[in-house]
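Design request, tokens follow.
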């Protein structure tokens, strides 16, 4: 496992370019997280049960038999440190749950630098929008440490969900609510706010 050095830490900071001047900027980090899923890992292989999946907002409206069917479709996958598991722009065809490890969510900046958007750890999930729309990935996800993941293929998900009346609509509503939160953050994962000077009556400089 690689060590955390000052140089590495500085590269992870969300630096931005500013014209010369004096500024005070207040930003609030908006972390979009659902409930964590407790996953058991034995000998490098992860497994999940229907009961565990029910802790996710995405699946909270599912009946127990449907959840058991979805849980059975998850596959355990291993990723090495530095390995990219999701690439921005690729078609989304899988949903992932982090069973063990740490992953960085990032995008590419204007000058080709990596912009860290967030970190995923044990029990976090990513890619739920891919299950419903299959649209392009919105960011990159890379393993910071050796990681064990559970993945659910979109085709397996659709075959199970389409057999239950009203379930797709409930899941879509859950994903839409999370999308609305995502729309309120900037490229650094911070809540979008106006930047103003401290003197009363001066113009907004956002």
């Amino acid at each position: 496992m690689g060590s955390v050095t000052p140089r590495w830490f500085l590269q992870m900071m969300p630096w931005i370019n500013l014209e010369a001047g004096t500024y005070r900027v207040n930003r609030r980090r908006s972390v979009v997280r659902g409930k964590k899923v407790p996953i058991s890992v034995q000998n490098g292989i992860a497994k999940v049960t229907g009961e565990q999946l029910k802790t996710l907002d995405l699946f909270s409206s599912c009946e127990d038999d449907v959840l058991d069917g979805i849980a059975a479709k998850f596959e355990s996958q291993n990723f090495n440190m530095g390995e990219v598991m999701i690439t921005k722009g690729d078609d989304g065809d899988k949903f992932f749950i982090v069973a063990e490890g740490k992953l960085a969510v990032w995008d590419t900046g204007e000058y080709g630098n990596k912009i860290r958007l967030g970190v995923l750890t044990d029990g976090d999930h990513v890619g739920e929008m891919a299950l419903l729309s299959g649209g392009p990935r919105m960011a990159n996800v890379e393993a910071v440490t050796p990681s064990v993941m559970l993945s659910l293929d979109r085709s397996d998900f659709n075959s199970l969900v389409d057999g239950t009346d009203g379930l797709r609509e409930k899941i879509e509503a859950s994903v839409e609510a999370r999308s609305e939160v995502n729309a309120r953050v900037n490229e650094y994962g911070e809540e979008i706010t106006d930047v103003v000077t401290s003197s009363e009556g001066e113009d907004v400089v956002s």
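Comment from the thread starter after seeing the answer: thanks! Residues 40 and 47 are 6 Å apart (CA to CA).
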